[in-house]
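Tokenised fold entry reproduced for everyone:
>
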Amino acid sequence: MMAEKIFGYELIMDLYDCDTAVITSKDKLQEYVDKLCELIEMVKYGKTLLPYFGENCAYTKGFSLVQLIETSSITGHFSEFWGRAYINIFSCKEYDNKLAEDFTRKFFGVKKMKTTFLTR
């Protein structure tokens, strides 16, 4: 029998009751990804994509974030209408998921957070 090989690690974070000033600010979202990458020792690959779109419907408008990292990606979707954020960190390199969770909770000032951590 072959030993299980882990390809990567994925942290899925659903954030509720976020600080609206943070999830609606392109500068704050850029600051988040820059500090997160430094904290969990990920090397950014290229510039952060931070488009604002979905303006035709109140519950879809907001920023999305894509940051490629040398070992995969960090993505996020931010709902102004619901005051929520949905962030995924996937990496082939191990990282401290608890450190990422704590930093994210504080950065977005969330009151409730649901997380799932997967090995793939």
